User: What shape does this take?
Amino acid sequence: MSGLLITFEGGEGAGKSTQILALADHLRKLGYQLVVTREPGGSSGAEAVRHVILSGAAEAYGPAMEALLFAAARSDHVDQKIRPAIQSGKIVLCDRFIDSSRVYQGISGNLDPHFMQNIERIAIDGLMPDLTIILDIPADKGLARAGARRGTDVADRFEKETIATHEARRQAFLAIAAHEPQRCKIINAERPVEIISAEIAALTDDLLREREVHAHG
Ligand code: Z5A
Assistant: This one.
């Protein structure tokens, strides 16, 4: 019995959390058992590392240090939560995963691709997503959404960066999708929530049929 791993990627404010909730609702109604999780975090070890990274405490030590922290958090998350859930037939919906490291640390941090590939391999130990939804939105529009939602709270370590940096990340996500079209599906995230949700539900239903993953209840 094997479940699936579906990851959601994209820039700030693209609507990942919103769309994960909608897909979770759709799949639960069909009787599937789910685990909804996020990175960095998702397991107790990884949540401890999340705080260190997002507070900016590790920023001064450079992008390689941050990349290793993300990889350490991911390794714990995969071992403790994601792999056991998939092995017991559940569908795991994860808010950000390897592609965020490839883009935020690898591209924005200008790190050696071999270094990035090596730490990714160690962190996931063979567990690739079955489907990656890349929510695509111009950086200024995504940041405006994230800013409106945050209100007067302080922007985190990554939200504070320039529009040019965010736009370069958008292009990096699109490049990953062009390179791995089987796994990655680009979704135009500028449209109304319900239209996007319907498109993601249809993609997921196709995958479940193709892989013959059956509902429990
Ligand atoms: N990071 C990294 O560098 N390397 C890694 O390996 C990993 C992560 C795993 C995690 O932050 C940070 O860590 C992240 C990358 C880095 N950078 N930042 N910042 P986080 O988990 O705190 O935040 P996030 O992942 O960026 O998510 P987000 O900004 O919270 O956005 P979102 O989940 O994509 O969006 P949302 O919460 O669903 O929606 C945002 C707002 O827009 C909200 O008010 C919605 O109601 C609204 N919304 C959503 N969809 C729509 C549509 N379709 N129309 C209009 N309004 C909408």
